[in-house]
Amino acid sequence: MHINLRLLYLYLFSFVGLLITVIGCTRLVTLGLKTYIFTNSDYYYFAKPLMVDGTIPPRNEDEQRKEQEASTRANREREAAEAIAMIVVGFPLYLYHWSLIQKEKK
Question: Is it the case that residue 19 has pLDDT exceeding 80?
């Protein structure tokens, strides 16, 4: 079997495109699982801050819950955007290089 530098390049970039696509799909599935099945996996519980005199500052529980939900929603949107971007970039990269490999085999 004769492997030249061009064929090595095509296989390498085809593999990279496939790897990026798989990672993007995995992240999208993870996001779906965290959103619909493991709904408490994104919530973080923080200790209440203390004032200098040792008292706890007044804070509305509804306000704190809304802030956390907004933060969680923003994080999920960011994760979804990153995963979709990986798929959008990785899949065409894979397809293009794999099609060139198939043409060279003929």
Answer: yes
